[in-house]
Write a structure and sequence with these properties.
alpha+beta; 7-stranded antiparallel beta sheet; 4-stranded antiparallel beta sheet; about 230 residues; globular
């Protein structure tokens, strides 16, 4: 029987380049701790089925010199709020190694118009790796970045057109944001492509949801472009 978790660990080397390149992407409001504020509470609890297997971010090696300044992302295409971006990871400072393979992803950010500290950045990218059966597969990974001060145990929930879909856990926090990364199943991507609104919900405290709505107009076209540039 295939074990999805093992497959995700097999593709971690491919993900590492992505995490390295966009590791410093954050919005100014993310650098501030989000204070608990009154916000919309979810009307119904979401199922605890995650987007996909839990993924552990790669550990940073000790004693590694500071990385060179990261290049700005090149916007390949833009569809509504969804942008397709590509970046070229810089070559290692020593050893004469070549720069890593170009990394492309779909990105969108939403902020609450009234609560300035409430924001969420979404990154979706495509990676290939060998599954437990030895066959090469392509999977979509979603990286969701929320401000500091979020209530970690509930993770981030997803609703599409008002219907609960799934929930993904927070994996770690750094001095700028808290990160949730998971494999996204094909059926979830297909629902996003066909949907009109996606609501991502994280919490300031138990029962105090902070929902952010993403307009899905242009999402399907953005994912099609991502498939083209990720070949």
């Amino acid at each position: 029987m295939n074990t999805p978790g093992r497959f995700v660990h097999r593709v971690l080397p491919a993900i590492a380049g992505f995490a390295f390149v966009i590791g410093s992407i954050a919005h100014p409001v993310m650098a501030q701790k989000a204070k608990p504020q009154q916000a919309e509470t979810m009307q119904a609890p979401l199922p605890v089925t995650p987007f996909g297997p839990r993924v552990k971010p790669p550990r940073a090696a000790s004693g590694v010199p500071a990385a060179p300044r990261k290049p700005l992302a090149e916007v390949i295409a833009e569809y509504g709020i969804w942008r397709v971006k590509c970046e070229q990871p810089p070559a290692p400072a020593k050893g004469g190694a070549k720069a890593g393979k170009k990394v492309c992803y779909v990105q969108a950010t939403q902020r609450d118009p009234k609560l300035k500290n409430v924001t969420l950045s979404i990154f979706i990218f495509k990676v290939k790796g060998k599954g437990p059966d030895g066959k090469v597969r392509s999977v979509y990974m979603i990286d969701m970045r929320a401000p500091l001060g979020v209530y970690l145990p509930t993770g981030i929930g997803l609703e599409i057109d008002g219907k609960p879909v799934s929930r993904a856990p927070f994996l770690s926090c750094n001095p700028i944001f808290c990160d949730s990364m998971a494999e996204t199943r094909k059926e979830t991507i297909d629902r996003l492509k066909k949907g009109k609104k996606a609501k991502f919900i994280y919490y300031a405290a138990p029962g105090r949801g902070l929902p952010l709505v993403f307009d899905l107009k242009g999402f399907s076209a953005a994912m099609k472009k991502l498939d083209e540039v990720s070949k």
